[in-house]
Amino acid sequence: MRGPVRRGLRELPWIAAGLGAFAARDASAQNSSVDVQFLFYKESGGRTQVLNPVVLWNQDLGSGGQLGLTAGYDSISGASPTGAYPTADVTTSASGTVTASGNIPQASYTDARKSAGLTWSRRFGANLPTVNITYAKENDYMARGVEASDSWTLLGGRGTLHFGFALSRDIVSPVKNPETNPGGADLNLAKNTNGFSLGWTWVFGSRDVADLSLSLMNLSGYLTDPYKVVPVGPPDSTQTIPENRPNTRSRRTAVLRYSHYFLWDASINVLYRYYNDDWSISAHTLDLTYNHRLGPDWIVSPEIRIYTQTGASFFANRFPAPQTYMSADYRLSPFTSFLGGLSLSHRLNEAMSANVGATFQTQHSNDPILLVTNTPGERGTASVSAADMNVLTFIVGLKYRY
Q1: Please, how many CA atoms are within 13 Å of residue 216, restricted to the half-sphere of its CB?
Q2: CB within 8 Å of 100: residues ≥ 6 apart
Q3: Closest to 209 measured CA to CA, from 258, 157, 271
């Protein structure tokens, strides 16, 4: 079963490409290195858990050239909400207080995802073209992508124009399921993505730099989640049918980044991201990261992020009757999340550095379900949603430069 974690990981290469000249400036300054990272991700309530070791190798080719290889493995387990309507349980305390709690229907699963990437870049005067090829395979999904970008430094190095495109040709192969795949036949369904980005970086002075990036992603093919169902019928009905989403999606993003260096050997990075698509989802992200150097070898970086989105036009917790497009997937619902994090980086010697970080995210639905349960002499209510959860993430890493 495909979960939100893997969907997010698949989109990371394009998100990274959208950073444009920020990433290009970093890449042009790197020497050869090997970077080993390990990520632990866990959702509350026994939901998705991910163990993700990644190895990144970057080789300096000389004359402004860089070659990078990335290899990762995701071990994924836990449970994922199916979209079915929750049930309510009523409990009565010793003092006679009646409360209700909602049980979100979930399906347990395990999976593994293997991924690899190859990146090449080389500076030609004021230009830094970059090509990135990615491949990933899991039990029911194969992703194949290529990205190409270029950054063009102008105006004596103060401005940088960056642009690029990305495309992927993925295959969705749902695990046989009697409810969503009654015939039991093997399915290989195409999912295609074409993306474009354009941005401008401006250096205001020795301590300030800003970047504005715009991107457009057009998706087509099989965009439905084959494991999600939708509650249909009156409130007392338990009927569910497979969800169905449109077979096209246009996603538009604008990202504004600003970095300022303080004279006390610290910097602040501010990011604002606006997202909009033709499924009627709009989202706002505000992220602030403060980096402070403690002596010659330590950097401490606290982070705060706020995210909010509206729901898709075809999202509902329950539908009175079937319609052409419908989904009860909480990822398409309106919700808000808050994230706080802290990371530490330590230079062990001239060649090696280590980092460790953690984030805690709390997420709440903006369209919860109100459950009312009546039992003889008792009444309980609960406001629940599959979007309500907490997420804990740990990252540790070791980097060797040579």
Answers
A1: 5
A2: 88, 89, 90, 91, 371, 372, 373, 380, 381, 382
A3: 258
Q: How far apart are CA 104 and CA 84, in angstroms?
A: 8
| 400-120-162 Cα angle (round to 5) | 110
Q: Give me the residue spans of the domains in the chain.
A: 4-401
Structure tokens at 38: 């390990």
List of the chain residues with pLDDT < 70: 1-30, 88-102, 176-185, 373-380
38, 52 in Cβ contact below 8 A? yes
Instruction: List pLDDT tens digits, range 376-400.
Output: 555 557 788 999 999 999 999 999 9
Question: Strand pairing partners for 354?
Answer: 346, 398
Distance from chain centroid for Cα 368: 23
Torsion of CA 11, 16, 18, 20, to 10 degrees: -170
SS (H, E, C) the chain: CCCHHHHHHHHHHHHHHCCCHHHHHHHHHCCCEEEEEEEEEEECCCCCEEEEEEEEEEEEEECCEEEEEEEEEEEEEEEEECCCCCEEEEEECCCCCEEEEEECCEEEEEEEEEEEEEEEEECECCECCEEEEEEEEECCEEEEEEEEEEEEEEHHHCEEEEEEEEEEEEEECCCCCCCCCCCCCCCCEEEEEEEEEEEEEEECCCCEEEEEEEEEEEEEECCCCCCCEEEECCCCCCCEEECECCCEEEEEEEEEEEEEEECCCEEEEEEEEEEEECCCCEEEEEEEEEEEEECCCEEEEEEEEEEEECCCCCECCCECCCCCCEECCHHHCCEEEEEEEEEEEEECCCCEEEEEEEEEEEEEECCCEEEEEEECCEEEEEEECCCCEEEEEEEEEEEEEC
Q: Which amino acid is at 377?
A: G
The pLDDT value recorded for residue 178 is 53
pTM for this model (two decimals): 0.87
Q: Which CATH class is domain 4-401?
A: mainly beta
Taking the C-alpha atoms of residue 191 and residue 169, their distance in angstroms, rounded to an integer, is 6
* pLDDT tens digit sequence for 301-340: 999 999 999 999 999 999 999 999 999 999 999 999 999 9
